[in-house]
UniProtKB/TrEMBL annotation:
Keywords (A to Z) from UniProt: Membrane, Transmembrane, Transmembrane helix
Basic and acidic residues compositional bias, start-end: 226-240
Identification of the protein by name: DUF4191 family protein
Transmembrane feature ranges: 35-56, 62-83
Record region (Disordered): 216-240
InterPro entries in the record: DUF4191 (IPR025445)
A Pfam cross-reference name: DUF4191
Domain of life: Bacteria
Amino acid sequence: MSSDQTSRPRRLHRVRRALQNIRDSYTISRRTYPWVGWAMLGSAVALVGLAVWVSVLSSQPLWYWLPLAVLLALTVCMVILSLTVRRASYTQLEGTPGAAKAVLDQAGRGWYVESQPVAVSPRTMDLVWRMVGRPGVVLVAEGAVSHTRRMLEEEERKVRRVLSTVPVHVIHVGTGTGQVRLTELSRTLRQLPTKPTRLTDNEISQVSKRLESLASKGMSMPRGVDPSKARIDRRALRGR
């Protein structure tokens, strides 16, 4: 069997997977933004109309401008979809235990995010996540401020006990007063101060290891709590 024959099914599989991803993204976006389909259609029609108008004014053949308009329309539609799908996903996840982890995992380079919550309330399923980055140690709480305040204070004491010179930042995630919406969490992380202390890559690694040793001593996770229950069902998010 030739290499071309074996690579053809792979290409078809990649195309099908890409189309399925686009379909899933559109489904997620439409749940929160019902107008997204009209926005994509309107932009495509406007660009094609612009191509026809330019063709008539310039006396150039339509076949010259139309392919450019179609390619540009596809690009604009993908941009609209990419801008809406992430915010729509976060909006639909709000209130779900563990939803903040989906945002923290997208924090990008320069951040270390622990895979499990460092504190969990078995009764209310309030969670506290811990991450390390340039600004220092960041504690992210999910749940009502009144419920998570004591959990955050306890975790902050544990961190300061072993890392007295590293800044500790606290973020409350939720929809209430004084809380950060899930859609604004990434921006809030980027806006955390890095002066006068800014951790280097080496310092981030060292701090992360110190905190891992802290967790391994059993100081963070309450008994009887399964962290896997706080994970997000991504298939349910796609409506499956």
